[in-house]
Amino acid sequence: MASARELIIVAAERLIAERGVDVPLRDIAAAAGQRNNSAVQYHFGSRDGLIDAVASYRIADLEQHRLLLLAESETQDVRSLVSALVVPMLTVPYEHGATHYARFLEQVRTHPALAADTNLDRTERTAVRLIIVRLDRALGQLPAAVRRRRLRVLPTVLFALLADRERAPARDDQDSAAELVDLIVGLLTAPVSTTASP
Fold it and tell me: What is the dihedral of CA 76, 80, 85, 91, to 10 degrees?
């Protein structure tokens, strides 16, 4: 049986996905079956603490799968790195009961709990950090400023694409995964316009 803390996390993931980050905390507590309106504050301290906990809730399983994919990959090219980042997000959370994970990420993408500049150094984000560092190296033919901008926009685009896929009533997971990887690879490797500033 799930703990009160886990019930709140799952309820928050769904309600934030459906209604945005400003959903009342008492609504989250009620959806989690908690009679005490201050249950969220008790377990997480604040809205920010709750969002951080929800964002971290599925990270361990995702990171484990990403590390396995990185270890199994014979090449460290852009496609294999993007696959290691993206493919676990298409399956792992849903194998563990998620229904609104990508839409939650889309809602909170600018929250400090997900910001790359503050989170890539966290121990539990080792695989993502390795992927970003290796992507930066693999994209070495691009000017440094272009690489930084593209890697900075990567989560925004990825979360939006994942949320669109999650909202789709029916999907072919195999084709969906390949197409999503193609889109992200295209974003990262597109030629630099001659009019773009480096």
Answer: -150
Alpha-carbon distance 88 to 66, whole Å?
A: 7
Output the domain CATH number for residue 9. 1.10.10.60
What one-letter code names the amino acid at 13? Answer: E
Q: How does DSSP assign 178-193, residue by residue?
A: HHHHHHHHHHHHPPPP
Structural domain of 64: 58-189
How far apart are alpha carbons 182 and 187 in whole angstroms? 9
The predicted-structure confidence for 67-119, as pLDDT tens digits, reads as follows 999 999 888 899 999 999 999 999 999 998 899 999 999 999 888 877 655 56
Residues 73 and 43 in one domain: no
pTM: 0.87
Asked if 106 and 31 sit in the same domain, the reply is no
Average pLDDT, the chain: 89
Q: Which residue has the tokens 């609104």?
A: 100
- pLDDT tens-digit map of 19-59: 999 999 999 999 999 998 889 999 999 999 999 999 889 98
Helices (H), the chain: 4-19, 25-31, 39-44, 47-57, 59-72, 78-95, 101-108, 116-119, 126-138, 144-167, 173-189
Reply yes or no on whether the pLDDT at 196 is more than 60: no
